[in-house]
Amino acid sequence: MDNLFQRSLEDLIKGFRLQLLGESSFISRALEEIRREVKATDLSTKSTALHKLSYLAAIHGVDMSWAAFHALEVVSSSRFHHKRIGYQAITQSFHDQTSVLLLITNQLRKDLNSVNEYEVSLALECLSRIGTRDLARDLSPEVFTLLGSSKSFVRKKATGVVLRVFDKYPDAVKVCFKRLVENLETSDPQILSAVVGVFCELASKDPTSCLPLAPEFFKILVDSRNNWVLIKLLKIFSKLASVEPRLGRKVAEPICEHMKRTVAKSLVFECVRTVVSSLSDHEAAVELAVAKIREFLVEDDPNLKYLGLHALSIAAPKHLWAVLENKEAVVKALSDEDPNVKLEALHLLMAMVTEDNVSEISRILMNYALKSDPLFCNEIIISVLSVCSRNAYEIIVDFDWYVSLLGEMARIPHCQRGEEIEHQLIDIGMRVRDARPQLVRVSWALLIDPALLGNMFLHPILSAASWVSGEYVEFSKNPYELVEALVQPRTDLLPPYIRAIYIHSVFKVLVFCLGSYFSAQESSSGSSSTVYESILNLVNVIEIGVWPLSGAYDVEVQERAKNVLGFIGMAKQDIAKNVNLQDNDAEACRVTAFMEDMFSEELGPISANAQEKVCVPDGLELEENLGDLEEICGKFLKPVESDSVSCTDKISFSVSKLRIRDQQEASSSSTSLPAKASSSLLAEHRKRHGMYYLTSEKNDPDSNGTPKDYPPANDLASEILLDPLDPKRKAKHRKSRPVVVKLDEGGESRITTSQAKTKQESVTDDESLSRAIQSALLVNKKGKEREKCEGNSNLVVQEEETSRIEKPQNSEKKKKKKKKKNGERTSGKHRSRRRSEVASSSEQVEIPDLLL
Amino acid sequence: MIKAVMMMNTQGKPRLAKFYDFLVRCLPVEKQQELIRGVFSVLSSRPENVSNFLEIDSLFGPDSRLVYKHYATLYFVLVFDGSENELAMLDLIQVLVETLDKCFSNVCELDIVFNYSKMHTVLDEIVFGGQVLETRSDEVMKAVEEISKSEAASNSISLVPKSVSGWRGGR
């Protein structure tokens, strides 16, 4: 009687649409109702409640995992209607952590064996979406039966489920694979397309294991007329051809045939894509493909245009001629309204960049950038930056032009790529000596423009500009204006760390000017008053500009400001006594000279691998743990006689220095008691709270997994970078191109292209799956081999024959390691034969590692 | 494989959402709703007369693309990866819409709203476990009709409450 008054799903939906406010309250009321109803014993009531719940979960995001057990009850009903609702609920809400997952196995088994094909299909669908390892294992016999069922409806769906089963439980391959392969020969096109779809997925995960089936695929490729099947086959061959190049030769012809004959654009596109990505060595095929691409490019349909450009960009790396042929179409596409098309066109244009046309192309692109929306504008900027900086700027001949381009980019209104531009400005400054004057000029232009200070995306550029101006101040034409720009009040808008850089640059400029003033003083007999005036002006301007910052909140800014002001204070007195400055003992003179020295030595870029090149000297233990710290500390707590303390004077490793300093302070103050006290304090603490201390590795033999990366501080300290490595300098003598300092491989590619696709492989699963497939295929092939050719004779009757024999060999030669490699060919047949025997005898294929 | 099938209206309300990708299915329901909202925000900013493809790596993981089609007030969205052909997926949306049309005769959004389970039946015949199973709409129609018939058959019994079935003497 209950369900006569129960609201059905339609009522629920109607009610939902009719109520005007309180959507969430409506839902919560409905939920309460459902909770009550679902506990009823009557299956109809339960199922209607469940139906409503799954609707709410799917459309309104309500959590339904609490109803898992009820779903199970509903599914066990004999009525199809209830079963459907139950399975729908289960498929939607069950996942790997559902606790009642175990209980479903039996129900699934019952339904899989049912005579009603629709119940079977419900169960199959459920399995395909929630299948776990246990479910797959327990139900693979049933799936095997269904794969051979007479009803094509069922067989189709069983094929669809196979993928999930294989994925979760690779051993199922042994059972089901044969039937799957048999289905390849079916005449029913829908089953065929399902099977081929499954193989497509398997091939993308591991092409080598499907290689033995290539002959069957080839047959279907030549015979079939069904577009869906052909598309999937093409994808399979694309993956297979990349591991087995000879396959490409065979397959190129049928593919060209299809390309010429078919009307379906999807098939044409797939052919083109296959040819261009995997068969790119076959000139005839590629030419045909490029012709087809051209047809796509001139279509009006934006989809086809986009796909044509996409195919062209796949072809670009190996066949640049194709891109160059279609240059006008590409440039036209830059101004298309479709963002996809624009992006593809941009990438293609970047692929065409060479030394000669880089300035022209950049000019075109900058114009586009000014006119475009922010997203595309930044895409343009980042692609220009990445192409130009590739391989340490190998494409740039005229650095002056490039540096001014960088400055121009900073002026583009939508530019948000400040960091990359900053990096390149500094990078070029360090690597290319000859570009420094231009750099300084461009930086000066950027610094004096007050409008740029307001744009926070440009702050990194400004920081680079100020650093460059300070570092290479000797190239600047007018230090006075530079300093004015650096201390202008509007720099308040900058964040503190950039202001600190500004102040430091001011300092460098000041030192430079003072240095040249003093040296001019010494060389000439007297000073002209104008020079004196100007240097005094400079110093005053700096003092006025920096003085407010000495009270700044930020520590860095404050410290640097005070440094500058202190230096000025000292120098001012000596400037004032300008007349008798022949006296070389003038303090300011000496200090300035010292400072100049400090700024004049250049810190070159260091390769990221530099540290590894320093050989670890004997006696240096890098792996010892810190548990011995007490002993080591104890050594250094002794006062100054120990010579290891003296060498630590040169150390830059701050921690050890601090410790030494503390210890020295401790020891220099009255007694050594405080020093001893510190170590004994440690011991005391350890005694009291021993359980919280990590055990030292020496006492704990089974903790060898713990990372040993805390070297004893003082041992390491004596080794630090006293000898910086010289960067390798490669001189490039090419048409008066300036010298670019290059290093070895470390860390060159900074910008990662967004097109790099990472394929995540679950290593162990894929491995076991592919091994299982290979062993299954081997069993098949062994049977066929014995029929066709006797023993291990080298019959080369047809190429297909050889390829069939050799392919099982190749499939065996799979490495048992993490990375996939192309199969290596061996010459020794006897070796392979022994292996195949071994393989067929044992269940698990033990693939020997060839490269050991 | 096909990672997801979605239908949403031009206000962003989901009308149907089915996820086939193993990883997405394990997400809690709120995350799935977020995905739907994410897709909607990307779609609503697309102008007319542009291509129907989008890269959607940020939402569905690497190598994910989607194809969408705008029919009246509905967006039909298919999310797939590199093992499906883009134009074929576009065709698939066409097949789906045609089938729905045959099913409901001049289908409109309300039909989809009120016939939640039938929608799922239709979809389950076309896409199964992430693979395309059937591409001929008449075959799909046949199967869907069969299923509805057997459902109706099983449903007619339930009109009679248990307590009176004995009195009625069964049908």
TrEMBL record, chain B:
All residue ranges annotated as the AP complex mu/sigma subunit domain in the record: 1-149
Gene3D superfamilies cross-referenced by the UniProt entry: 3.30.450.60
Taxonomic superkingdom: Eukaryota
Family, similarity comment: Belongs to the adaptor complexes small subunit family.
Name of the molecule in the record: AP complex subunit sigma
Membrane topology classification: Peripheral membrane protein
Organism the protein comes from: Brassica napus (Rape)
Compartment annotation: Cytoplasmic vesicle membrane; Golgi apparatus
InterPro entries from the UniProt entry: AP_complex_ssu (IPR016635), AP_mu_sigma_su (IPR022775), APS3 (IPR027155), Clathrin_sm-chain_CS (IPR000804), Longin-like_dom_sf (IPR011012)
Protein keywords: Cytoplasmic vesicle, Golgi apparatus, Membrane, Protein transport, Transport
